[in-house]
Amino acid sequence: MTDLKALIKQGEGISVEFKECRRTLNRDVYKTVCGFLNRHGGDLLLGVSDAGEVTGVDPGCVGQIKKDFVTAINNPQKINPPAYLLIDEVEVEGKMILRVYVPESSQVHRCNGHIYDRNEDGDFDITDHTQLVAELYHRKQATYSENKIYPFAGLEDLRTDLIDKCRKLAGVWRDGHPWLGMDDMELIESAQLYQTDHETGKSGVTLAGILLLGKDSVILSAVPHHRTDLILRKVNLDRYDDRDLVRTNLIESYERIIAFIQKHLPDPFYLEGIERISIRDTIFREVASNILIHREYRNAFPAKLIIEYGQVRTENSNKPHGFGVLNPATFTPFPKNPVIGAFFREIHRADELGSGMRKMMRYCKSYGDADPEMIEGDVFRIVVKVPEFGMIETKNGATNQITGEVTPEVTPEVTPEVTPEVSKMLSIMTGEMTRGEIQEKLGLRDEKHFRENYQQVGVKLSLIEMTIPDKPRSSKQKYRLTDAGKRLLESMQK
What we know:
The chain has about 500 residues and is of the alpha+beta class. The chain contains 16 helices and 22 strands. The protein has helices at about 1-10, 30-40, 60-75, 130-145, 160-175, 185-190, 205-215, 215-220, 250-265, 280-295, 340-345, 355-370, 420-430, 435-440, 445-460, 485-494, and strands at about 15-20, 40-45, 80, 85-90, 95-100, 110, 115-120, 120-125, 150, 195, 205, 230, 240-245, 270, 275, 305-310, 310-315, 325, 375, 380-385, 465, 480. The strands form 6 sheets. A 7-stranded mixed beta sheet has the order 13-12-16-17-20-19-18. Strand 6 and strand 7 form a beta hairpin. The longest helix has 15 residues, at about 250-265.
Protein backbone atom coordinates (compact mmCIF):
# COMPACT_ATOMS: atom_id res chain seq x y z
CA MET A 1 0.00 0.00 0.00
CA THR A 2 2.77 2.43 0.96
CA ASP A 3 4.69 1.56 -2.20
CA LEU A 4 1.60 2.19 -4.33
CA LYS A 5 0.94 5.59 -2.75
CA ALA A 6 4.59 6.53 -3.35
CA LEU A 7 4.22 5.39 -6.97
CA ILE A 8 1.15 7.59 -7.47
CA LYS A 9 2.88 10.54 -5.80
CA GLN A 10 5.87 10.07 -8.12
CA GLY A 11 3.59 10.69 -11.10
CA GLU A 12 3.61 9.36 -14.66
CA GLY A 13 6.88 8.58 -16.38
CA ILE A 14 8.61 6.10 -18.63
CA SER A 15 7.62 3.20 -16.35
CA VAL A 16 4.38 4.50 -14.77
CA GLU A 17 1.06 5.30 -16.48
CA PHE A 18 -2.33 6.34 -15.04
CA LYS A 19 -5.73 5.65 -16.62
CA GLU A 20 -9.09 6.62 -15.09
CA CYS A 21 -11.15 3.69 -16.43
CA ARG A 22 -14.08 4.40 -14.14
CA ARG A 23 -16.49 1.93 -15.75
CA THR A 24 -14.74 0.74 -18.91
CA LEU A 25 -11.19 0.44 -20.22
CA ASN A 26 -9.70 3.42 -22.02
CA ARG A 27 -9.02 2.60 -25.68
CA ASP A 28 -5.36 3.61 -25.37
CA VAL A 29 -4.65 1.19 -22.49
CA TYR A 30 -3.29 -1.39 -24.93
CA LYS A 31 -0.89 1.08 -26.55
CA THR A 32 0.63 1.60 -23.11
CA VAL A 33 0.88 -2.16 -22.51
CA CYS A 34 2.63 -2.51 -25.89
CA GLY A 35 5.02 0.34 -25.05
CA PHE A 36 5.91 -1.14 -21.66
CA LEU A 37 6.52 -4.57 -23.21
CA ASN A 38 8.82 -3.06 -25.83
CA ARG A 39 10.72 -0.78 -23.43
CA HIS A 40 11.64 -1.64 -19.82
CA GLY A 41 8.26 -2.67 -18.44
CA GLY A 42 6.22 -0.64 -15.98
CA ASP A 43 3.15 -0.20 -13.79
CA LEU A 44 -0.25 0.60 -15.28
CA LEU A 45 -2.68 1.95 -12.67
CA LEU A 46 -6.39 1.92 -13.56
CA GLY A 47 -8.50 4.26 -11.45
CA VAL A 48 -6.03 7.16 -11.25
CA SER A 49 -6.30 10.40 -13.25
CA ASP A 50 -3.44 11.93 -15.24
CA ALA A 51 -2.97 14.42 -12.40
CA GLY A 52 -2.43 11.59 -9.89
CA GLU A 53 -5.88 11.83 -8.26
CA VAL A 54 -7.29 8.51 -7.06
CA THR A 55 -10.69 8.38 -8.80
CA GLY A 56 -11.20 4.64 -8.37
CA VAL A 57 -12.83 1.98 -10.53
CA ASP A 58 -16.54 1.32 -10.07
CA PRO A 59 -16.64 -1.86 -7.90
CA GLY A 60 -19.54 -3.19 -9.96
CA CYS A 61 -17.47 -2.96 -13.14
CA VAL A 62 -14.22 -4.49 -11.83
CA GLY A 63 -15.03 -8.04 -12.94
CA GLN A 64 -15.94 -7.01 -16.50
CA ILE A 65 -12.92 -4.70 -16.84
CA LYS A 66 -10.55 -7.48 -15.77
CA LYS A 67 -12.23 -9.94 -18.14
CA ASP A 68 -12.05 -7.51 -21.09
CA PHE A 69 -8.40 -6.73 -20.38
CA VAL A 70 -7.25 -10.36 -20.14
CA THR A 71 -9.22 -11.30 -23.27
CA ALA A 72 -7.67 -8.48 -25.28
CA ILE A 73 -4.02 -9.02 -24.31
CA ASN A 74 -4.37 -12.71 -25.16
CA ASN A 75 -5.82 -11.83 -28.56
CA PRO A 76 -3.08 -11.70 -31.25
CA GLN A 77 -5.22 -9.29 -33.26
CA LYS A 78 -4.93 -6.78 -30.41
CA ILE A 79 -1.45 -7.51 -28.93
CA ASN A 80 0.91 -9.60 -31.04
CA PRO A 81 2.63 -11.68 -29.75
CA PRO A 82 0.03 -12.03 -26.94
CA ALA A 83 1.10 -11.18 -23.39
CA TYR A 84 0.37 -12.90 -20.08
CA LEU A 85 -0.36 -10.30 -17.40
CA LEU A 86 -2.01 -10.29 -13.99
CA ILE A 87 -4.33 -7.63 -12.54
CA ASP A 88 -4.24 -6.93 -8.80
CA GLU A 89 -7.08 -5.21 -6.96
CA VAL A 90 -5.83 -2.68 -4.40
CA GLU A 91 -7.83 -0.33 -2.20
CA VAL A 92 -6.38 3.18 -1.82
CA GLU A 93 -8.14 5.97 0.09
CA GLY A 94 -11.26 3.83 0.22
CA LYS A 95 -11.37 3.44 -3.57
CA MET A 96 -10.59 0.46 -5.78
CA ILE A 97 -7.53 0.62 -8.05
CA LEU A 98 -6.49 -2.03 -10.55
CA ARG A 99 -2.74 -2.44 -10.85
CA VAL A 100 -1.16 -4.17 -13.84
CA TYR A 101 2.56 -4.89 -13.74
CA VAL A 102 3.86 -5.21 -17.30
CA PRO A 103 7.33 -6.81 -17.50
CA GLU A 104 9.82 -6.07 -20.23
CA SER A 105 9.43 -8.60 -23.01
CA SER A 106 12.12 -10.27 -25.07
CA GLN A 107 9.92 -9.81 -28.15
CA VAL A 108 8.88 -6.82 -30.21
CA HIS A 109 5.13 -6.42 -29.74
CA ARG A 110 2.51 -4.71 -31.91
CA CYS A 111 -0.82 -3.21 -30.89
CA ASN A 112 -3.42 -3.26 -33.66
CA GLY A 113 -0.56 -3.77 -36.14
CA HIS A 114 1.51 -0.82 -34.86
CA ILE A 115 4.78 -0.91 -32.91
CA TYR A 116 4.80 1.34 -29.83
CA ASP A 117 7.78 2.33 -27.73
CA ARG A 118 7.78 4.21 -24.45
CA ASN A 119 9.33 7.55 -23.59
CA GLU A 120 8.80 10.16 -20.88
CA ASP A 121 5.91 11.69 -22.83
CA GLY A 122 3.97 8.45 -23.17
CA ASP A 123 3.51 5.93 -25.96
CA PHE A 124 5.20 6.61 -29.27
CA ASP A 125 4.23 4.91 -32.55
CA ILE A 126 7.53 3.99 -34.23
CA THR A 127 6.10 1.69 -36.93
CA ASP A 128 7.27 3.87 -39.83
CA HIS A 129 10.59 4.87 -38.24
CA THR A 130 12.89 2.23 -39.74
CA GLN A 131 15.92 3.14 -37.64
CA LEU A 132 13.99 3.06 -34.35
CA VAL A 133 12.41 -0.30 -35.23
CA ALA A 134 15.84 -1.76 -36.13
CA GLU A 135 17.29 -0.50 -32.84
CA LEU A 136 14.40 -2.02 -30.92
CA TYR A 137 14.92 -5.46 -32.50
CA HIS A 138 18.66 -5.25 -31.90
CA ARG A 139 18.16 -4.29 -28.25
CA LYS A 140 15.80 -7.20 -27.64
CA GLN A 141 18.13 -9.75 -29.25
CA ALA A 142 21.17 -8.42 -27.37
CA THR A 143 19.37 -8.43 -24.00
CA TYR A 144 17.82 -11.89 -24.08
CA SER A 145 20.07 -14.79 -25.02
CA GLU A 146 17.04 -16.97 -25.85
CA ASN A 147 16.52 -14.83 -28.97
CA LYS A 148 19.90 -15.62 -30.50
CA ILE A 149 19.28 -16.73 -34.08
CA TYR A 150 21.02 -19.73 -35.64
CA PRO A 151 20.78 -19.00 -39.41
CA PHE A 152 21.71 -22.54 -40.41
CA ALA A 153 19.21 -24.19 -38.05
CA GLY A 154 15.83 -25.10 -39.51
CA LEU A 155 12.84 -27.33 -38.99
CA GLU A 156 14.91 -30.42 -39.83
CA ASP A 157 17.00 -29.79 -36.67
CA LEU A 158 13.92 -29.99 -34.44
CA ARG A 159 12.05 -33.09 -33.30
CA THR A 160 8.76 -33.29 -35.15
CA ASP A 161 7.40 -35.81 -32.62
CA LEU A 162 8.03 -33.28 -29.85
CA ILE A 163 6.32 -30.50 -31.79
CA ASP A 164 3.30 -32.76 -32.29
CA LYS A 165 3.30 -33.67 -28.60
CA CYS A 166 3.27 -29.99 -27.59
CA ARG A 167 0.52 -29.25 -30.12
CA LYS A 168 -1.65 -31.96 -28.53
CA LEU A 169 -0.84 -30.78 -24.97
CA ALA A 170 -1.89 -27.24 -25.87
CA GLY A 171 -5.13 -28.59 -27.34
CA VAL A 172 -5.88 -30.61 -24.21
CA TRP A 173 -5.80 -27.53 -22.00
CA ARG A 174 -7.51 -25.13 -24.37
CA ASP A 175 -10.27 -26.08 -26.78
CA GLY A 176 -9.63 -24.81 -30.28
CA HIS A 177 -6.04 -23.81 -29.55
CA PRO A 178 -4.56 -22.07 -32.64
CA TRP A 179 -1.66 -24.56 -32.77
CA LEU A 180 -4.09 -27.36 -33.62
CA GLY A 181 -4.64 -25.87 -37.06
CA MET A 182 -0.99 -25.04 -37.79
CA ASP A 183 1.71 -27.08 -39.48
CA ASP A 184 5.09 -27.44 -37.75
CA MET A 185 6.67 -24.36 -39.33
CA GLU A 186 3.67 -22.17 -38.59
CA LEU A 187 3.70 -23.36 -34.97
CA ILE A 188 7.34 -22.52 -34.29
CA GLU A 189 6.94 -19.15 -36.01
CA SER A 190 3.81 -18.44 -33.94
CA ALA A 191 5.71 -19.33 -30.74
CA GLN A 192 8.55 -16.95 -31.76
CA LEU A 193 11.00 -19.89 -31.99
CA TYR A 194 11.88 -19.01 -35.58
CA GLN A 195 12.79 -15.35 -36.10
CA THR A 196 14.40 -12.91 -38.49
CA ASP A 197 17.19 -10.55 -37.50
CA HIS A 198 15.91 -7.26 -38.89
CA GLU A 199 19.42 -5.82 -38.86
CA THR A 200 21.16 -8.56 -40.88
CA GLY A 201 18.12 -10.07 -42.62
CA LYS A 202 19.11 -13.58 -41.52
CA SER A 203 16.42 -16.01 -40.36
CA GLY A 204 16.64 -19.21 -38.34
CA VAL A 205 15.62 -21.15 -35.27
CA THR A 206 16.38 -19.29 -32.05
CA LEU A 207 18.22 -20.63 -29.01
CA ALA A 208 14.80 -20.94 -27.32
CA GLY A 209 13.58 -23.13 -30.18
CA ILE A 210 16.66 -25.35 -30.04
CA LEU A 211 16.40 -25.76 -26.26
CA LEU A 212 12.68 -26.50 -26.30
CA LEU A 213 12.35 -28.75 -29.35
CA GLY A 214 15.83 -29.47 -30.72
CA LYS A 215 17.44 -32.82 -31.29
CA ASP A 216 19.97 -33.66 -28.58
CA SER A 217 22.92 -33.36 -30.96
CA VAL A 218 21.81 -29.85 -32.01
CA ILE A 219 21.26 -28.76 -28.40
CA LEU A 220 24.73 -29.88 -27.33
CA SER A 221 26.24 -28.20 -30.39
CA ALA A 222 24.58 -24.86 -29.58
CA VAL A 223 24.89 -25.09 -25.77
CA PRO A 224 27.54 -27.74 -24.97
CA HIS A 225 27.41 -27.02 -21.22
CA HIS A 226 23.62 -27.52 -21.00
CA ARG A 227 22.62 -29.95 -18.24
CA THR A 228 20.41 -30.33 -15.18
CA ASP A 229 21.89 -32.44 -12.39
CA LEU A 230 19.31 -34.27 -10.23
CA ILE A 231 20.79 -35.65 -7.01
CA LEU A 232 19.49 -37.60 -4.02
CA ARG A 233 21.90 -37.21 -1.10
CA LYS A 234 20.69 -38.53 2.25
CA VAL A 235 22.82 -41.54 3.18
CA ASN A 236 26.02 -41.05 1.18
CA LEU A 237 26.70 -37.38 1.89
CA ASP A 238 30.08 -37.43 0.16
CA ARG A 239 28.62 -38.45 -3.21
CA TYR A 240 24.97 -39.37 -3.79
CA ASP A 241 22.40 -42.13 -3.33
CA ASP A 242 20.77 -41.62 -6.73
CA ARG A 243 21.45 -39.32 -9.68
CA ASP A 244 20.04 -38.38 -13.08
CA LEU A 245 22.14 -36.18 -15.37
CA VAL A 246 19.67 -34.57 -17.77
CA ARG A 247 21.08 -33.23 -21.05
CA THR A 248 18.09 -33.09 -23.36
CA ASN A 249 15.35 -30.70 -24.52
CA LEU A 250 13.44 -28.66 -21.94
CA ILE A 251 10.14 -30.49 -22.47
CA GLU A 252 11.59 -33.89 -21.54
CA SER A 253 13.90 -32.30 -18.96
CA TYR A 254 10.81 -31.09 -17.13
CA GLU A 255 9.28 -34.57 -17.19
CA ARG A 256 12.48 -36.15 -15.81
CA ILE A 257 12.69 -33.60 -12.99
CA ILE A 258 9.09 -34.34 -11.97
CA ALA A 259 9.70 -38.11 -12.21
CA PHE A 260 12.78 -37.80 -9.98
CA ILE A 261 10.76 -35.82 -7.42
CA GLN A 262 7.90 -38.32 -7.48
CA LYS A 263 10.35 -41.17 -7.03
CA HIS A 264 12.01 -39.76 -3.92
CA LEU A 265 9.54 -37.47 -2.11
CA PRO A 266 6.34 -38.41 -0.26
CA ASP A 267 2.95 -37.14 -1.43
CA PRO A 268 0.78 -36.48 1.67
CA PHE A 269 -2.97 -36.80 1.48
CA TYR A 270 -4.32 -33.24 1.18
CA LEU A 271 -7.84 -31.95 0.72
CA GLU A 272 -8.67 -28.55 -0.75
CA GLY A 273 -12.34 -28.21 -0.03
CA ILE A 274 -13.69 -31.61 -1.05
CA GLU A 275 -11.08 -32.24 -3.74
CA ARG A 276 -7.84 -34.09 -3.16
CA ILE A 277 -4.80 -32.44 -4.74
CA SER A 278 -1.12 -33.32 -4.81
CA ILE A 279 0.62 -30.46 -3.04
CA ARG A 280 3.96 -32.14 -3.75
CA ASP A 281 3.38 -32.03 -7.49
CA THR A 282 1.89 -28.52 -7.31
CA ILE A 283 4.97 -27.17 -5.49
CA PHE A 284 7.58 -28.94 -7.58
CA ARG A 285 5.82 -28.18 -10.86
CA GLU A 286 6.73 -24.57 -10.10
CA VAL A 287 10.25 -25.49 -8.95
CA ALA A 288 10.92 -27.56 -12.09
CA SER A 289 9.64 -24.90 -14.47
CA ASN A 290 11.63 -22.22 -12.61
CA ILE A 291 14.90 -24.14 -13.08
CA LEU A 292 14.29 -24.39 -16.82
CA ILE A 293 12.51 -21.14 -17.69
CA HIS A 294 14.54 -18.63 -15.69
CA ARG A 295 18.04 -19.98 -16.35
CA GLU A 296 20.67 -17.91 -18.12
CA TYR A 297 21.77 -20.38 -20.78
CA ARG A 298 24.89 -18.46 -21.80
CA ASN A 299 26.36 -19.30 -18.40
CA ALA A 300 28.08 -22.70 -18.06
CA PHE A 301 27.07 -23.08 -14.40
CA PRO A 302 25.21 -26.43 -14.22
CA ALA A 303 21.69 -26.35 -12.84
CA LYS A 304 21.11 -28.62 -9.84
CA LEU A 305 18.22 -30.06 -7.88
CA ILE A 306 19.43 -31.76 -4.71
CA ILE A 307 17.14 -33.76 -2.42
CA GLU A 308 18.57 -33.80 1.11
CA TYR A 309 17.15 -34.88 4.44
CA GLY A 310 14.22 -32.59 5.16
CA GLN A 311 14.72 -30.24 2.21
CA VAL A 312 15.22 -29.78 -1.52
CA ARG A 313 17.72 -27.23 -2.87
CA THR A 314 17.97 -25.91 -6.42
CA GLU A 315 20.60 -23.76 -8.10
CA ASN A 316 20.70 -22.28 -11.58
CA SER A 317 22.64 -19.54 -13.34
CA ASN A 318 20.78 -16.26 -13.35
CA LYS A 319 20.73 -12.75 -14.74
CA PRO A 320 19.80 -10.99 -11.47
CA HIS A 321 17.60 -7.95 -11.08
CA GLY A 322 18.45 -7.60 -7.40
CA PHE A 323 20.24 -9.57 -4.72
CA GLY A 324 19.16 -11.34 -1.55
CA VAL A 325 16.15 -13.22 -0.22
CA LEU A 326 12.94 -12.40 -2.10
CA ASN A 327 9.99 -11.09 -0.12
CA PRO A 328 6.71 -12.36 -1.65
CA ALA A 329 4.87 -9.27 -0.35
CA THR A 330 7.07 -6.86 -2.33
CA PHE A 331 8.49 -9.12 -5.03
CA THR A 332 8.06 -7.94 -8.63
CA PRO A 333 8.43 -10.81 -11.11
CA PHE A 334 10.88 -10.27 -13.97
CA PRO A 335 10.89 -12.67 -16.93
CA LYS A 336 14.35 -14.10 -17.69
CA ASN A 337 13.34 -16.04 -20.85
CA PRO A 338 9.85 -14.81 -21.82
CA VAL A 339 9.61 -16.91 -25.00
CA ILE A 340 10.45 -20.14 -23.20
CA GLY A 341 8.09 -19.14 -20.38
CA ALA A 342 5.24 -18.43 -22.79
CA PHE A 343 5.74 -21.81 -24.50
CA PHE A 344 5.61 -23.60 -21.13
CA ARG A 345 2.37 -21.80 -20.27
CA GLU A 346 0.79 -22.85 -23.57
CA ILE A 347 1.37 -26.52 -22.73
CA HIS A 348 0.31 -26.01 -19.09
CA ARG A 349 3.75 -26.62 -17.60
CA ALA A 350 3.92 -23.20 -15.91
CA ASP A 351 1.62 -20.51 -14.53
CA GLU A 352 1.38 -16.82 -15.31
CA LEU A 353 4.33 -14.75 -14.16
CA GLY A 354 4.23 -14.35 -10.38
CA SER A 355 1.28 -16.66 -9.67
CA GLY A 356 3.50 -19.74 -9.36
CA MET A 357 5.44 -18.15 -6.51
CA ARG A 358 2.19 -17.40 -4.69
CA LYS A 359 1.17 -21.06 -5.07
CA MET A 360 4.48 -22.16 -3.55
CA MET A 361 3.99 -19.85 -0.57
CA ARG A 362 0.46 -21.18 -0.16
CA TYR A 363 1.28 -24.89 -0.13
CA CYS A 364 4.85 -25.18 1.21
CA LYS A 365 3.73 -24.46 4.77
CA SER A 366 1.35 -27.43 4.63
CA TYR A 367 3.90 -29.69 2.93
CA GLY A 368 7.13 -29.07 4.83
CA ASP A 369 5.94 -26.84 7.70
CA ALA A 370 7.97 -23.89 6.38
CA ASP A 371 7.79 -21.22 3.70
CA PRO A 372 10.09 -21.68 0.69
CA GLU A 373 13.22 -19.56 0.52
CA MET A 374 14.20 -17.91 -2.77
CA ILE A 375 17.52 -16.11 -3.07
CA GLU A 376 18.24 -13.85 -6.06
CA GLY A 377 21.81 -13.49 -7.26
CA ASP A 378 24.17 -14.57 -10.04
CA VAL A 379 23.05 -18.04 -8.98
CA PHE A 380 19.32 -18.26 -8.19
CA ARG A 381 18.56 -20.60 -5.29
CA ILE A 382 15.36 -22.13 -3.94
CA VAL A 383 15.08 -24.08 -0.68
CA VAL A 384 11.88 -26.06 -0.03
CA LYS A 385 11.40 -27.93 3.25
CA VAL A 386 9.90 -31.39 2.77
CA PRO A 387 8.45 -34.10 5.04
CA GLU A 388 10.33 -37.36 5.47
CA PHE A 389 9.01 -40.90 5.19
CA GLY A 390 7.99 -41.96 8.67
CA MET A 391 7.82 -38.40 10.06
CA ILE A 392 4.10 -38.48 10.75
CA GLU A 393 3.56 -37.18 14.27
CA THR A 394 2.07 -33.71 14.33
CA LYS A 395 2.14 -31.32 17.26
CA ASN A 396 -1.21 -32.51 18.56
CA GLY A 397 -0.41 -36.18 18.07
CA ALA A 398 -2.60 -36.71 15.02
CA THR A 399 -1.19 -38.75 12.16
CA ASN A 400 -0.87 -36.05 9.61
CA GLN A 401 2.20 -36.14 7.48
CA ILE A 402 0.18 -38.21 5.13
CA THR A 403 -3.34 -36.98 5.70
CA GLY A 404 -2.49 -33.38 4.83
CA GLU A 405 -5.21 -31.89 7.01
CA VAL A 406 -4.77 -32.58 10.72
CA THR A 407 -7.82 -34.08 12.36
CA PRO A 408 -8.67 -32.55 15.75
CA GLU A 409 -8.07 -35.81 17.60
CA VAL A 410 -7.22 -39.45 16.97
CA THR A 411 -10.30 -41.65 17.08
CA PRO A 412 -10.38 -45.44 17.34
CA GLU A 413 -12.21 -45.77 14.03
CA VAL A 414 -10.55 -46.12 10.66
CA THR A 415 -10.42 -42.67 9.03
CA PRO A 416 -12.57 -42.24 5.90
CA GLU A 417 -9.47 -41.90 3.69
CA VAL A 418 -8.44 -45.49 4.45
CA THR A 419 -10.27 -47.82 2.06
CA PRO A 420 -11.49 -51.32 3.00
CA GLU A 421 -8.82 -52.74 0.67
CA VAL A 422 -6.01 -50.96 2.54
CA SER A 423 -7.48 -51.95 5.90
CA LYS A 424 -7.51 -55.59 4.83
CA MET A 425 -3.90 -55.36 3.60
CA LEU A 426 -2.71 -53.89 6.91
CA SER A 427 -4.40 -56.70 8.85
CA ILE A 428 -2.45 -59.46 7.07
CA MET A 429 1.00 -57.83 7.04
CA THR A 430 3.72 -59.11 9.37
CA GLY A 431 7.36 -58.05 9.35
CA GLU A 432 8.84 -57.41 5.90
CA MET A 433 6.98 -58.95 2.96
CA THR A 434 7.44 -58.98 -0.81
CA ARG A 435 4.67 -57.85 -3.13
CA GLY A 436 4.01 -61.45 -4.10
CA GLU A 437 3.72 -62.56 -0.47
CA ILE A 438 1.21 -59.81 0.35
CA GLN A 439 -0.80 -60.51 -2.78
CA GLU A 440 -0.86 -64.23 -2.03
CA LYS A 441 -2.08 -63.68 1.54
CA LEU A 442 -4.85 -61.47 0.23
CA GLY A 443 -5.81 -64.13 -2.30
CA LEU A 444 -5.44 -61.74 -5.25
CA ARG A 445 -4.35 -62.81 -8.74
CA ASP A 446 -4.55 -59.51 -10.61
CA GLU A 447 -1.25 -57.68 -10.01
CA LYS A 448 -2.52 -54.39 -11.48
CA HIS A 449 -5.60 -54.43 -9.24
CA PHE A 450 -3.40 -55.11 -6.19
CA ARG A 451 -0.90 -52.41 -7.12
CA GLU A 452 -3.46 -49.66 -7.78
CA ASN A 453 -5.95 -50.39 -5.00
CA TYR A 454 -3.75 -51.76 -2.21
CA GLN A 455 -0.01 -51.18 -2.53
CA GLN A 456 0.11 -47.66 -4.03
CA VAL A 457 -2.64 -46.31 -1.77
CA GLY A 458 -0.93 -47.72 1.32
CA VAL A 459 2.39 -46.14 0.35
CA LYS A 460 0.82 -42.76 -0.47
CA LEU A 461 -0.92 -42.70 2.91
CA SER A 462 2.40 -43.71 4.55
CA LEU A 463 0.77 -46.69 6.19
CA ILE A 464 3.26 -49.03 4.53
CA GLU A 465 6.76 -48.26 3.25
CA MET A 466 9.37 -49.79 0.99
CA THR A 467 12.45 -51.32 2.56
CA ILE A 468 14.51 -49.97 -0.37
CA PRO A 469 12.76 -46.62 -1.14
CA ASP A 470 15.54 -45.33 -3.42
CA LYS A 471 15.10 -48.32 -5.77
CA PRO A 472 11.35 -48.95 -6.07
CA ARG A 473 11.78 -51.65 -8.72
CA SER A 474 14.50 -53.60 -6.97
CA SER A 475 14.04 -57.39 -7.10
CA LYS A 476 14.79 -57.38 -3.36
CA GLN A 477 12.06 -54.85 -2.56
CA LYS A 478 9.85 -55.60 0.41
CA TYR A 479 7.13 -53.72 2.31
CA ARG A 480 6.47 -53.21 6.02
CA LEU A 481 4.06 -51.30 8.21
CA THR A 482 5.07 -47.77 9.19
CA ASP A 483 4.52 -46.50 12.73
CA ALA A 484 1.34 -44.84 11.47
CA GLY A 485 0.22 -48.13 9.94
CA LYS A 486 0.88 -49.98 13.20
CA ARG A 487 -1.09 -47.43 15.24
CA LEU A 488 -3.97 -47.54 12.79
CA LEU A 489 -3.95 -51.36 12.86
CA GLU A 490 -4.07 -51.29 16.66
CA SER A 491 -7.05 -48.90 16.60
CA MET A 492 -8.82 -51.19 14.11
CA GLN A 493 -8.35 -54.23 16.34
CA LYS A 494 -9.76 -52.62 19.50
